[in-house]
UniProtKB/TrEMBL annotation, chain A:
UniProt xrefs under PROSITE patterns: G_TR_2 (PS51722)
Name of the protein in its database record: Elongation factor-like 1
PANTHER family named in the record: ELONGATION FACTOR-LIKE GTPASE 1, TRANSLATION ELONGATION FACTOR-RELATED
Molecular function, one GO term: GTP binding
Pfam family, one: EFG_C
Biased composition (Acidic residues): 889-903
Compositionally skewed regions (Basic and acidic residues) per UniProt: 391-401, 413-427, 904-914
GO annotation terms (biological process): cytosolic ribosome assembly
Keywords from the UniProt entry: GTP-binding, Hydrolase, Nucleotide-binding, Ribosome biogenesis
TrEMBL record, chain B:
Domain Ribosome maturation protein SDO1/SBDS central: 109-170
GO terms for cellular component: nucleolus; nucleoplasm; spindle
Protein name in UniProt: Ribosome maturation protein SBDS
GO terms of biological process kind: cytosolic ribosome assembly
Every Ribosome maturation protein SDO1/SBDS C-terminal domain range: 172-247
C-alpha cells in the first residue's frame, strides 16, 4: 500500500465529519476510470506516470481488454487540505447502459457524486441517466468537464471557441438538472392538488390556479445548478493529469493584478472582460468583441502551453514557462521523445487534477453525517408506506416507530425526530387523536438511542447497527481456496460493525411487524423462531476495499463503505443488516435498467447440468441486475440488461461460477392454437362467397390427405369417429370460445382447480370442505361465464360443462351435449345443499375426459397447447356387448335407445347391487381386452383423434404470446423507434408526453417471437435514447391463416399462385415444427434445374 | 489441363431413376434429384419440377423408351404423364443422400422431442430441453434406424441415456379405489409396480355396506401402467377403479433460481 497506512485510515474512519463517500458517474468513455486513476495516484498507490493508462480500478481481465468498466469498485483515499485530513471512499462505476444497475448500487452507498462530462461529446444519454439517478437518490453532484485537451489537440479550437463550447456544455448539464427539478415540482403539485381536492372540496379552483402558477417560482432551485463560480465545476484533462477550478486562478491573479479574489471569482466565468487601461473588469465581452476574462486569464495560458509543448515542441519556451511557473521538471522528461510525457510532467505539477477534484469534493460534498432528511426518509420509506397503506396495523407499527429510528447516526436523529413528529402529526390529523402521546414517545425513545449510538465508539458495545449491503461483488483476491468468495459491498449508516458480531440479515421483503411479536429485549444471540426474510448470522470478516486489494479490519464505524465477508449464505442480492429486528429493510434500489435480454443457457455436456445450476445461482447472487429462472419447459433462462451485460454474465459463468462449457440459444417461444369463426373476407378484403374459386384444386387435395378413412366430417364441422374395435362412436364439434371467456378461464385457474378437486372427491362419496369465500367466487365466476356465453348456440352451455383442459384447468372447455346423458356438473360444489337426483356417470366417462385433455395439450398445427376452444360432444354410442361390423353406419343423427339400456346397466354406481350388474361387468371385462388393447385406452385415443379432426375442420389460427412494451424516448428518436417497432410486427397502443420533460412514453405490443435482439436494436438505432421494457401481457390470435393459399380470383391476382409473400403464421408454425422434428411441408430443393450437376467421378 | 473430349459414355449426373416392375415389364422414369421424396410427401406440387421428361423408359441410362403397348397393358392408359405419376407414386428409387440425411435428421429430432416430453430430471422434476437431449444422444453415439418407429426408438434411447445423464421417465400419477376385501392382497401385488405411494386411505367409512374402498394415490412408471390396469381389472373383477390423475408428474410454472 502507498504512503497512507492502514492505521491512519482506521483512525480517520472514526471521524465521521471527515469522511466523503462519493462515486464517479458518467457516460461510457468519458473518462471516469482515468480520473479515478489520477486520484489513486495522488495517494501513491500507483505511479503518477501510469495514471490514466493503468486503469487501476478495472481489475477484471475483460474490463482491461474491452477498455470499459463493468463492475463498480471502491477504494479508500486519504487527502489533506488546509490542515484537515479527509478519508475519501471513492467508488468508480461503469458508464455503459447495461451496467446501470451498478450505478444504482454505487449511488445508494454514496453521499455525493462526481459527474464527468466529455468536453467534446457533451451531455450524452447516459449522462442524463446518471444525473437522474443521483437526483432520485438525493445525493449531491459536482461536475468535472474532462478531456479539454481534445478541444486543443483534436478539434484545434481557439481558446475563444473553446470557451463558448464549454459554456454550452454547462448549459446542457444544467438544463437536464432543471428538467428533473421541474418534473419533480410538477409531480408534487399534482399530488398536492389531488390531496387538496380530496380533502377539501370547498377550496375553490381559483386557489389552485394560483397554486399552480406559483409552483415553480416558489421553490428555489439555484443551488442545484453547476456553475464554476460556485466552485462545483472542475475543468480537467485526466489523461494529461491537469485540472483546475477557477478558484485557483482567482487566487493566483488577485495577487498579481491586485483585484480582490472574490471579485475575480465572480467575474472569471461569464461575459466579463478586462479593461487593461482602466484596470477594471467590465461586463459585455461578447458584444464588444473582447476576450472574456476566462479566455484571457485561464484558457490562453493552457493553450500556449499545449502549443509550446505538443504542437511546436519549442524547448526554450517550455523551459521559460517551467521556470516562470516555478516548477521542477526532470531532465529525463524534458528529453523524452513523446511530448505527452513532458506535458503531463508539467501539468501534474502545475494544476494537479487530484488536487482540484479532491478539494472540491471535500468542500462541496456532504459528509455522511449530513445526509439530507429527505434521503433518510426515502431510505426508510418501506416502513412509511406500510404505515399509510395499512391503517389497521398502526397499533403494531407505532411500537415499531421508535425502533425505526435506531439505525441512524446521532446527527440524523434530530432531523429524524422532527420528521417523525411531522409524520405522526399528519397522521393524527387524518386518523385518531389518540396517537399523539405515542409520537412524543417516539421522539423520546429515540433521544437516548442517539447518545447510545455515539457512545458506542468509546464503550466498546454496539447498541444499534445498521448497514445496507448491496450487490455482493466477487473479489478474485480471496480466491485461494477453489471456492468463490463473495464480499458484500456495504455501508454503515449507524453504529459500529465488528468482526464476530451477531447480526440480523433482513431481506428486502422482511416485515418488521412480525419480529415485534417476539418477546421484547431479545437479542441476536437468542435462538429465535424463524421469521420470513430474516436470518441471523455472524460477521466473519470485515474488509477495507482498496481497489484490487482488500485489507482486513476489526471494526468499522458509521458512515463508511466497507466489504463484509462470509455472508453468501444469507444474502441473496441485497439486504439490510441490523442488530435490531425492528429495523425495516431499506427501500430496494431503483434500477434504471430492467433486465430484458433473454437467452436460454445449456451446458455443452448434458451431464454437467448440476454444475450449471449451481453456477447460475452464484451468478444471480453476484449480479443485482441478472435474473435467472427455470421455465416450465426445463430451459434455464438468463435475463440480462443488455448484450454487453449478457456477455459478461456468460464469461463469468464459464470462467468463475460454473467452470464448464456452455451454449447459448434463443429461448423457446411458446404458441397456442385456436380456431376462429369462418372469416367473411378474403386476404384482399373482398367479400367471400360471391367470388369464383380458382385455385381450389390444391386445397381439396390437401383436405383429403389430412383426414383418413373412418372419419366422417359433415358440413357443419361435426366429426364422428369409431374406435378401432368398432365398439364406440363419438361425435365432436369444435367451437371457438369468445375472447372474454378465454380470459375469464385464464384468470380463474385456481377456482377451476378447486372445483376439479371437489368433483374428484365427490366421485368417491367424500366431501371436500371449501370455504364460503371461495364458493362465492365460484358462483361469481359461473355468473360471469353465463353472461359471456350468450346467444342461441350457447344455451345452457355453462350447465353442461364437462371438463376443462388441458391439465383439467386450462382455457378450453369440453361440453356435454349428448342427449340423454346427465352427468354431475362441474358446478356440483355449488349445489351441495340441493342434493338433486343423483346424476349417473357412464363407464369410461373418464376416458373421454382423458382424450380431451390429451387433445388440448397438443394441437394438430404444431403440437402446442390449445386455447379458447370448446369441444362439444354431441354423440357417444357404446356397443359393448355386441361388437358388430356395421357400426360404421351409426352416424351422428341416430340416437338409438339400445345403448341407453346398456348404459343403465353399465353405470358405475357402487351402491347398487343389482343382479345383472355383475353380468354386464363380466362382459365388459371380457370385452375390454381384445387385439387393440384395453378398451379405455382405445376410447382415449379415439376421443383425442376426434377432437383433433374437429379442430381441423374449422379455420385454425395460431396465437402468439405478446409483450407489452413501454418505451421512454426523446422526441428526436421517435421516428427511428417506430421503424424498429414496425419492423418487428409491433403495434403502438398509445403515446404520451411526460409532463415537464421532453420524454415520450410509448406503449406498444410486440410478439414474443420477435423480441429476440429487440432491446439491442432499439438502443442501437436510437443511440441509446430509447429504452424499452418488456412484460408479458397476453395471447393474441395471429390474423393470417397458416394454411392459406390463394383461392379467389382477386387473391390469385394479388399474391400469385404460390403466395410467396411471407405468411407470418406459417413461418411461426414451421419454425416450431422444425424445432420439434415434426414434418414440415417444404421442398428440399426449390428449383430442380438449379442444382449442382457435378458427379463424384468426374 | 486436358482438353475435354467427348466420350461415348453419357453420364446421368443429375438424374434420379425411379423404377417399377409391372405386368412383368420394367419401367423407369427420369426425375430430378432430391425431388421425388418431396413429391411423395406432397410438398412439391409441380410435376415438371420432378420429371426430367414426360417419358417412360425401359432403361433410362440407355435411353430406351418403353413401348406403347407395354404401357397400355401395364397402366391401362397410353397417357405418359399418367403413367409417370403412377410410377412416381409406387416405384422404387435410390434415395439421394440429401433426402436421406434430412429424413434421418427429422427422425432424430422427433426422437429427441419424444424423449424430452416423456422424461424429467429426477432432481428437479423438470423436463430437459430438446437440444440438450439431442446433444446427449449424440454423445452416446445414437444412430437412427429409418425403418423403426420413432417412439420405439425413443423408448430405447431413454434406457441408454440413463447411463450418461440423470434422466427418468416422468411418473404417472394414478389413483385407484379398491374394494377392501381384495385390497390387502392386491396391494402386495401392486407394490413392486409402484414407485411411491403419496396418499393411502384405509378409511372404512361405509362399513355397513359390503364395499370398503381403499384409496391410493401413487406415482408409477408409465411402462407399468398396463400391468397395473390389467391386475386391477382382473383381480377385482371390475370393481376396482383406476384413474389417471396426471400423465406426467412435472413441476409446473416458472421458477426463479435463488
Amino acid at each position: 500500500m502507498g504512503h497512507t497506512s492502514l492505521e491512519k485510515i482506521i483512525a480517520l474512519q472514526k471521524k465521521t465529519s471527515c469522511i466523503r463517500n462519493l462515486c464517479i458517474l458518467a457516460h461510457v468513455d468519458h473518462g471516469k476510470t482515468t480520473l479515478a486513476d489520477s486520484l489513486v495516484a495522488s495517494n501513491g498507490i500507483i505511479s503518477s506516470r501510469l495514471a490514466g493508462k493503468l486503469r487501476y480500478l478495472d481489475s477484471r481481465e475483460d474490463e482491461q481488454i474491452r477498455g470499459i468498466t463493468m463492475k463498480s469498485s471502491a477504494i479508500s483515499l486519504h487527502y489533506t487540505t488546509g490542515g484537515n485530513e479527509y478519508l475519501i471512499n471513492l467508488i468508480d462505476s461503469p458508464g455503459h447502459v447495461d451496467f446501470s444497475s451498478e450505478v444504482s448500487t454505487a449511488v445508494r452507498l454514496c453521499d455525493g457524486a462526481i459527474i464527468v462530462v466529455d468536453a467534446v461529446e457533451g451531455v450524452c444519454p447516459q449522462t442524463q441517466v446518471v444525473l437522474r439517478q443521483a437526483w432520485l437518490e438525493n445525493i449531491r453532484p459536482v461536475l468535472v468537464i474532462n478531456k479539454i485537451d481534445r478541444l486543443i489537440v483534436e478539434l484545434k479550437l481557439t481558446s475563444q471557441e473553446a470557451f463558448t463550447h464549454l459554456q454550452k456544455i454547462l448549459e446542457q448539464v444544467n438544463a437536464v438538472t432543471g428538467s428533473l427539478f421541474t418534473s419533480k415540482v410538477l409531480e408534487e403539485r399534482a399530488e398536492k392538488d389531488a390531496e387538496a381536492q380530496s380533502s377539501c372540496t370547498e377550496n375553490s379552483s381559483a386557489d389552485q390556479v394560483y397554486d399552480w402558477s406559483a409552483g415553480l417560482e416558489e421553490t428555489d432551485d439555484s443551488d442545484l445548478y453547476f456553475s464554476p463560480d460556485r466552485g462545483n465545476v472542475v475543468f480537467a484533462s485526466a489523461i494529461d493529469g491537469w485540472g483546475f477550478r477557477i478558484h485557483q486562478f482567482a487566487e493566483m491573479y488577485s495577487q498579481k493584478m491586485g483585484i480582490r479574489s472574490s471579485v475575480l471569482l465572480k467575474t472569471l466565468w461569464g461575459d466579463f472582460y478586462l479593461n487593461a487601461k482602466a484596470q477594471k473588469i467590465m461586463k459585455g465581452a461578447q458584444s464588444k468583441g473582447k476576450k472574456p476574462l476566462f479566455v484571457q486569464l485561464v484558457l490562453d495560458n493552457i493553450w500556449s502551453m499545449y502549443d509550446a509543448v505538443v504542437t511546436r515542441r519549442d524547448k526554450e519556451k517550455v523551459e521559460k514557462m517551467v521556470t516562470s511557473l516555478g516548477l521542477k521538471v526532470m531532465s529525463r522528461d524534458l528529453r523524452h521523445s513523446d511530448p505527452k510525457v513532458l506535458l503531463s510532467a508539467i501539468c501534474s505539477q502545475w494544476l494537479p487534477v487530484s488536487q482540484a477534484v479532491l478539494s472540491m469534493v471535500c468542500e462541496k460534498l456532504p459528509c455522511p453525517a449530513e445526509i439530507s432528511a429527505e434521503r433518510v426518509e426515502k431510505l426508510m420509506s418501506v416502513g412509511a408506506r406500510r404505515f399509510d397503506s395499512l391503517p389497521e396495523k398502526t397499533q403494531e407499527l407505532k411500537k415499531e416507530s421508535p425502533a425505526v429510528q435506531l439505525p441512524l447516526t446521532q446527527e440524523e436523529i434530530s432531523q429524524r425526530r422532527e420528521l417523525a413528529r411531522q409524520r405522526h402529526a399528519e397522521r393524527q390529523a387524518a386518523n385518531q387523536s389518540a396517537e399523539s402521546p405515542r409520537s412524543a414517545d417516539a421522539g423520546g425513545t429515540s433521544t437516548p438511542a442517539g447518545p447510545a449510538g455515539s457512545a458506542v465508539t468509546g464503550k466498546n458495545l454496539t447498541y444499534a447497527l445498521c448497514a445496507q449491503t448491496e450487490a455482493l461483488s466477487v473479489k478474485a483476491a480471496v480466491e485461494e481456496e477453489s471456492k468463490e468468495h463473495f464480499v458484500a459491498f456495504a455501508r454503515v449508516y449507524s453504529g459500529i460493525i465488528r468482526k464476530g458480531q451477531k447480526v440480523f440479515v433482513l431481506g428486502p421483503k422482511y416485515n418488521p411487524s412480525l419480529a415485534l411479536r417476539l418477546p421484547e429485549g431479545c437479542s441476536v444471540a437468542d435462538v429465535l423462531p424463524s421469521i420470513p426474510h430474516m436470518a441471523c448470522c455472524t460477521v466473519d470478516r470485515l474488509y477495507l476495499l482498496m481497489g484490487r486489494e482488500l485489507e482486513d479490519l476489526d471494526e468499522v464505524p458509521s458512515g463508511n463503505v466497507l466489504g463484509i465477508g462470509g455472508m453468501e449464505e444469507f444474502i441473496l442480492k441485497s439486504a439490510t443488516i441490523s442488530t435490531s429486528p425492528a429495523c425495516p429493510p431499506f427501500t430496494p434500489l431503483s434500477f434504471e435498467a430492467t433486465p430484458i435480454v433473454r437467452v436460454a443457457v445449456e451446458p455443452k455436456h448434458p451431464s454437467e447440468m448440476p454444475k450449471l445450476v449451481r453456477g447460475m445461482r452464484l451468478l444471480n447472487q453476484a449480479d443485482p441486475c441478472a435474473e435467472v429462472l427455470i421455465q416450465e419447459t426445463g430451459e434455464h433462462v438468463l435475463v440480462t440488461a443488455g448484450e454487453v451485460h449478457l456477455q459478461r454474465c456468460l464469461d463469468d459463468l464459464r470462467e468463475r461460477f460454473a467452470k464448464i462449457e456452455i451454449s447459448v440459444s434463443e429461448p423457446i417461444i411458446p404458441f397456442r392454437e385456436t380456431v376462429i369463426r369462418p372469416p367473411k373476407m378474403d386476404m384482399v378484403n373482398e367479400d367471400l362467397g360471391k367470388q369464383q374459386k380458382v385455385a381450389v384444386i390444391h386445397q381439396v387435395k390437401e383436405e383429403q390427405m389430412k383426414i383418413p378413412e373412418g372419419v366422417q366430417v359433415d358440413s357443419t364441422g361435426l366429426v364422428t369417429l369409431t374406435t378401432s374395435n368398432k365398439m364406440a362412436t363419438v361425435g365432436v364439434r369444435a367451437i371457438p370460445l369468445p375472447e372474454e371467456v378465454t380470459r375469464l378461464l385464464e384468470d380463474n385457474v385456481e377456482l377451476i382447480r378447486t372445483m376439479e378437486q371437489f368433483s374428484l372427491f365427490a366421485w368417491e362419496d367424500k366431501t371436500l370442505d371449501i370455504n364460503q369465500k371461495i364458493l362465492e367466487n365460484i358462483q361469481d365466476f359461473k355468473v360471469k361465464l353465463e353472461s359471456n356465453l350468450q346467444g342461441h348456440k350457447w344455451r345452457g352451455a355453462v350447465e353442461h360443462i364437462w371438463a376443462f383442459g388441458p391439465r383439467r384447468f386450462g382455457p378450453n372447455i369440453l361440453l356435454n351435449n349428448i342427449e340423454g346423458y346427465r352427468r354431475p356438473s362441474v358446478w356440483q360444489c355449488l349445489e351441495r345443499e340441493k342434493e338433486t337426483e343423483r346424476a349417473e356417470i357412464r363407464d369410461f366417462d373418464n376416458s373421454i375426459v382423458s382424450g380431451f385433455q390429451l387433445a388440448t395439450l397438443s394441437g394438430p398445427m404444431c403440437e402446442e397447447p390449445l386455447m379458447g376452444v370448446c369441444f362439444s360432444v354431441e354423440t357417444w354410442d357404446m356397443k359393448i356387448s355386441v361388437p358388430q361390423a356395421q357400426q360404421d353406419s351409426v352416424d351422428e343423427d341416430s340416437q338409438p335407445s339400445e345403448p341407453n339400456n346398456d348404459d343403465q346397466s353399465e353405470r358405475s354406481d357402487m351402491h347398487e347391487t343389482s343382479s345383472n350388474r355383475s353380468r354386464s361387468r363380466a362382459e365388459a371385462a371380457g370385452g375390454s381386452v381384445d387385439c387393440y388393447g384395453p378398451f379405455s385406452g382405445q376410447l382415449i385415443a379415439a376421443m383425442k383423434d376426434t377432437c383433433r379432426y374437429a379442430f381441423q375442420a374449422k379455420p385454425q389460427r395460431l396465437m402468439a404470446a405478446m409483450y407489452t412494451c413501454e418505451i421512454m424516448a426523446t422526441a428526436e428518436v421517435l421516428g427511428r423507434m417506430y421503424a424498429v417497432l414496425s419492423k418487428r410486427e409491433g403495434r403502438v397502443l398509445q403515446e404520451e408526453m411526460k409532463e415537464g420533460t421532453d420524454m415520450f412514453i410509448i406503449k406498444a405490443v410486440l410478439p414474443v417471437a420477435e423480441s429476440f435482439g429487440f432491446a439491442d436494436e432499439i438502443r442501437k438505432r436510437t443511440s441509446g435514447l430509447a429504452s424499452p421494457q418488456l412484460v408479458f401481457s397476453h395471447w393474441e390470435v395471429i390474423g393470417s391463416d397458416p394454411f392459406w393459399v390463394p383461392t379467389t380470383e382477386e387473391e390469385y391476382l394479388h399474391f400469385g399462385e404460390k403466395a410467396d409473400s411471407a405468411n407470418q403464421a406459417l413461418k411461426y408454425r414451421n419454425a416450431v415444427r422444425r424445432r420439434k422434428g415434426l414434418y414440415v411441408e417444404e421442398k428440399l430443393v426449390e428449383h430442380a434445374e438449379k442444382q449442382r450437376t457435378l458427379s463424384k467421378n468426374k | 489441363m486436358s482438353i475435354f473430349t467427348p466420350t461415348n459414355q453419357i453420364r446421368l449426373t443429375n438424374v434420379a431413376v425411379v423404377r417399377m416392375k409391372k405386368a412383368g415389364k420394367r419401367f423407369e422414369i427420369a426425375c430430378y434429384k432430391n425431388k421425388v421424396m418431396s413429391w411423395r410427401s406432397g410438398a412439391e406440387k409441380d410435376l415438371d419440377e420432378v420429371l426430367q421428361t414426360h417419358t417412360v423408359f425401359v432403361n433410362v441410362s440407355k435411353g430406351q423408351v418403353a413401348k406403347r403397348d407395354d404401357l397400355s397393358s401395364a397402366f391401362g392408359t397410353e397417357d405418359l404423364t399418367e403413367a409417370c405419376t403412377q410410377i412416381l407414386a409406387k416405384g422404387e428409387l435410390q434415395v439421394s443422400d440429401r433426402e436421406r440425411q434430412s429424413q434421418l435428421e427429422h427422425m432424430f429430432r422427433d426422437i429427441a422431442t419424444i424423449v424430452a416430453e416423456k422424461c424429467v430430471n429426477p432432481e428437479t422434476k423438470r423436463p430437459y430441453t430438446v437440444i440438450l437431449i439431442e446433444r446427449a444422444m449424440k454423445d452416446i453415439h445414437f444412430s437412427v434406424k429409418a425403418n423403426k418407429s420413432t417412439k420405439q426408438q425413443a423408448l430405447e434411447v431413454i434406457k441408454q441415456l440413463q447411463q450418461s445423464i440423470q434422466i427418468q421417465r416422468a411418473h404417472m400419477r394414478l389413483r385407484f379405489v379398491l374394494p377392501a376385501r381384495d385390497g390387502k392382497r392386491l396391494k402386495e401385488k401392486l407394490r413392486p409396480l409402484i414407485k411411491t405411494v403419496e396418499n393411502e386411505d384405509f378409511t372404512e367409512q361405509l362399513e355397513m355396506l359390503m364395499v370398503f374402498p381403499v384409496l391410493q394415490v401413487c406415482l408409477i412408471d408409465p411402462g407399468c401402467f398396463r400391468d397395473i390396469d390389467e391386475l386391477i381389472r382382473c383381480e377385482t373383477k371390475g370393481k376396482g377403479t383406476l384413474e389417471v390423475l396426471s400423465l406426467k408428474d412435472v413441476e409446473e410454472g416458472d421458477e426463479k433460481l435463488e
